[in-house]
Amino acid sequence: MSQLDRLRGVFRASLSLPADRDVDGLEYRAIPQWDSLAHMALVAAMEDEFDIMIDTDEMIDMSSFAKAAELLEKHGADAVT
Amino acid sequence: MPTPSPDRRVALVTGSTLGIGRAVAARLARTGHEVVLHGRDQERSAKAAAEVAAETGGRTDTVHGDVADPAAVSAMMREVHRRHGRLDALVINAGGHAASLLGMMHSDVVSRLFHVNALGATHTLQAAVKLLRRGTDPAVVLVSSVMGRKGAPGQAVYSATKAAVLGLTLAAAKELGPQGIRVNAVAPGYIQTDMLSTLDDRARADTVAATPLGRLGTAGDVAAAAAFLLSADACFITGQVIGVDGGLVL
Ligand SMILES: NC(=O)c1ccc[n+]([C@@H]2O[C@H](COP(=O)([O-])OP(=O)(O)OC[C@H]3O[C@@H](n4cnc5c(N)ncnc54)[C@H](OP(=O)(O)O)[C@@H]3O)[C@@H](O)[C@H]2O)c1
Question: Could you list the residue range(s) of the whole structural domain that residue A28 is in?
Answer without folding.
Answer: 3-80
